[in-house]
Amino acid sequence: MTVDLLTIVVPLIVGVLLGYLLRSKGKRNFNKATFGIIIVLIFSLGFSIGSNNDLLISLPKVGLNTAVMLVMVLLFSILFVKIARKAVGIK
Amino acid sequence: MIKYILLSLFLGGIAGYLNNMWGAQAVNTFISDYLFNFSLIALLFVMGLNFGLDKESTEKFKKAGFRILVVPFAVASGSVIGGLTSALILGINPVASMAVCAGYGWYTLAGPLNGQLFGVEWGALGFTVNFLRELLTIATVSLSVKIDKYAPIAMGGATAMDTTLPVIVRYSGSDTIITAFLSGFILSLMAPFTITLIATLA
């Protein structure tokens, strides 16, 4: 089974539209369903990590990559927001 | 909730490791492929529902004005540029690195989605980078707020609409609540789109 742009974007957009249509029909929330789905999804992510021996061996490298990416992401996010704020004048 | 997610990742890892030792390939295919893809699509659908049902955010937009959109767009471009820079430093796949960083802190999505698009190694990275982003936002808020009043919102990314919102508001001030929420809301909507769009560059 392959997942591409359509398989990702279609369920999201259908969800948003359906949610928008359901708005008037009183208060609903899907917190419990969301939680259940997340647990199953993360379990299967863990499963695919655990069953991949090559990955388990290279976990220290994953750690280094994580550290560098985290620092860069936070640095540029803060910098760009600072610039954008000045440019548009948000206090 | 974090507790249950980490427990579920850990148990999944153990189960996968044991199953691999036993060599039950059919179980592996069922969980790593079918269950994984099915729950990923289900998550996108149910999150879409939640976004669509959210009446308050539309009203908040009207109040705050659309100028506020520069904040999430700055966070998004900062995150992607951060991913590109890391790839140049580390000598890793720049497209996958940008996609991982385009999770904006939403680790329950960024982990599985990047795993699906680029392979399980990137799934692990997508989880850790974005999970630690949320954790660091909370842990360093008293320091980051000194760099810039909006720095905690920038760090929080997509999580600024829910999990990190209370701490952000406490340190950045209650006048930032609408910006923080809307920035997180927009980034959450953007995350699946930007990750898959970046993947088409590969």
Give a quick summary of the entry.
Chain A has 91 residues and is mainly α.
Overview of this structure, please?
The complex is a heterodimer of chains A (91) and B (202). With 91 residues, chain A is mainly α. In chain A, 80% of the residues lie in helices and 0% in strands. Chain A contains 4 helices and no strands. Chain A has helices at residues 5-22, 31-50, 53-57, 59-88. Chain A starts with a helix and ends with a helix. The model of chain A has no long low-confidence stretch (mean pLDDT 88). By secondary structure, chain B is an all-alpha fold. Chain B has 2 domains: 1-53; 55-199, no CATH class. Chain B has 11 helices and no strands. In chain B, 54% of the residues are buried. The chains are: A mainly alpha (91), B mainly alpha (202).
Give a quick account of the main beta sheet of chain A: strands, pairing sense, barrel closure: none
Instruction: State the largest interface.
Output: A-B, 72 and 97 residues
Give the termini distance of chain A in whole angstroms: 48 Å
Radius of gyration of chain B: 18 Å
What is the percentage of strand-forming residues of chain A? under 5%
Note the overall shape of chain A.
flat
Mean of pLDDT of chain B: 93
* Class derived from helix and strand content of chain B: mainly alpha
Helix-strand blueprint:
The complex is a heterodimer of chains A (91) and B (202).
Chain A: H1 5-22, H2 31-50, H3 53-57, H4 59-88
Chain B: H1 2-22, H2 25-53, H3 55-64, H4 70-90, H5 94-101, H6 107-118, H7 120-139, H8 141-147, H9 151-156, H10 165-172, H11 177-199
Helix pairs in contact in B: 2-6, 3-11, 4-5, 4-11, 5-6, 5-7, 5-11, 6-7, 6-11
